Amino acid sequence: MKVDLFDFDLPQELIALRPVAPRDSARMLVVRDDAPFTDATVRDLPGLLAPGDVLVFNDTRVIPAQLEGRRGEAKIGATLHKRIDMRRWQAFVRNAKRLSEGDTIDFGAGVSAVAEARHADGSFTLAFAGEEPVEVLLERAGRMPLPPYIAGKRPTDERDRADYQTMFAQHDGAVAAPTAALHFTPGLMAALADRDVGAETLTLHVGAGTFLPVKAEDTDDHAMHAEWGTVSAETAARLNAARAAGGRLIAVGTTSLRLLESAAGEDGQVRAFAGDTAIFITPGYAFRAVDGLMTNFHLPRSTLMMLVSALMGRERMMDAYAHAIARGYRFYSYGDSSLLLP
């Protein structure tokens, strides 16, 4: 499909630079196949779901994966993208033309890394020096990796360390937040439990590739970056049992959806999974495991805009985005939410 089919104009003032407080007071647009759009709030979620439904969250934890350093006199920026092993990460590098294989980058605070290898996409393998865990080094020298559309408008600050982390965050490794879950609070989770709506977690370490624009003119020519995820056998069994009993699996965020679909067989059964996924979901995809999606509003021409169009239909989603823009919904990572129920 042509990528420009997923383009739209977004007023810059609708890009949210901070989340609302409290988190569950964000607005939420409800999109169904056969009903008018409903303007709701995240707090309305329990009444929009049925007893027996299950929300599936991503429990990855965002690490301060953005680093600023020097190679000699040259300024080098690095955003870690994907862990290779205990001391090596693949990273997107700013000012990469000033960096060669074998160069050492000094990130300050006693943190340095060798640019070990350059990849075909221009990223580098960075090998961190010393014996301290890389996560400890990042806490000392790194910053939270805010999306470019926020970082380009204001500097990262201490508030972001809390704001850009979900209440479910447990496992270090993401360089971008699973932002749909930023809207959840303990009070909202209690209300969902009272409604007999279940909650399950899986782990997908979101990579910086999620922010990369689609440069190809046709979706067939776009290569997705791989991300590592895991679904336990116990979680898979509970999800299958809930669905067999008539409950719907509602993915909270496109990361949860992508991992569920990667773990599901053609029979719709979710299986234990541990490994990389580079699944690219575009219109025409036959969903196996997911019955709905809660997600924020996405960038034009992005793989995520293609994913929601695959779930609900391209024209339906273009109409939904036009509705959201006309009514002043806040967009992107710190913005408002949508509940998509095909």
From TrEMBL:
GO CC term, one of those recorded: cytoplasm
Record GO terms (molecular function): S-adenosylmethionine:tRNA ribosyltransferase-isomerase activity
Pathway entry: tRNA modification; tRNA-queuosine biosynthesis
InterPro entries: QueA (IPR003699), QueA_dom1 (IPR042118), QueA_dom2 (IPR042119), QueA_sf (IPR036100)
Entry keyword set: Cytoplasm, Queuosine biosynthesis, S-adenosyl-L-methionine, Transferase
Catalytic activity: 7-aminomethyl-7-carbaguanosine(34) in tRNA + S-adenosyl-L-methionine = epoxyqueuosine(34) in tRNA + adenine + L-methionine + 2 H(+)
Record EC number: 2.4.99.17
EC class of the enzyme, as a word: transferase
Keyword Cytoplasm listed: yes
GO BP terms: tRNA queuosine(34) biosynthetic process
Subcellular location: Cytoplasm
Matches recorded under HAMAP family: QueA
Subunit field text: Monomer.
Assigned protein family: Belongs to the QueA family.
Function statement: Transfers and isomerizes the ribose moiety from AdoMet to the 7-aminomethyl group of 7-deazaguanine (preQ1-tRNA) to give epoxyqueuosine (oQ-tRNA).
Listed name of the protein: S-adenosylmethionine:tRNA ribosyltransferase-isomerase
Organism expressing this protein natively: Aurantiacibacter luteus
